[in-house]
Amino acid sequence: MNAHSSTAKNEKESRFWIRPYRDADFEAVYHVCLKTGDSGEDGTHLYDDPLILGHVYVGPYVTLEPELAFVLEDELGVCGYVLGALDSETFWKAYLEEWLPRIRESCPDPAGDPAMWTPTEKLYHFVHHPTVEAPPEVSGYPAHLHIDLLPRAQGQGNGTKMMQTLLDKLKEMGSPAVYLGMSSVNHRAYRFYTKLGFKELCRVGSGEPHTVYLGLKLS
Q1: What's this model's pTM, rounded to 2 decimal places?
Q2: Domain 3-174 carries which CATH code?
Q3: What is the pLDDT of residues 4-21, one digit of tens each?
Q4: Alpha carbon 185 to its chain's center
């Protein structure tokens, strides 16, 4: 390999970097959540409240367990995140008692026929009537995580590096195992997780999409 190609390779590899989450990233990680909110695709067209996805799926993690939040950044800014909870039971308790009450005022509980609710209204309903019970099959996996990357950051090994960053942190903190839930229609994500060693634990729901739970032993 000549000097020019080596430099080009290094520049490509250094386009992205992973770092711990900072408070100043709050708006950016919400943006990533929305832009990946349709089973990995852009969810902007689905939600007339652009904050609700972040309120449900991102805000509680970066607020309650910021030490397990990492972002992916490039020259354009934050383009991905990986978020975790060390002990899911403790996290969900705080989610219900500390986090959701903060956002209910801005999320009116919808009325009328649920079959007519928009995606935003369905999440508003969840905020007021949450159910966060995990299936019994994940009981041996106390930690959980999720990850999202914008399209410009995909397909270049960034997801694997981010997952490893969080998994190493969970191991350092003494976690024996971790699980995640994902949409059954996100086949690309399923291949990604299984390639990392995650095993399918169970499927919840009927029809499409439903939720697939995957787990990984860390020790």
Answers
A1: 0.89
A2: 3.40.630.30
A3: 444 444 444 559 999 999
A4: 16
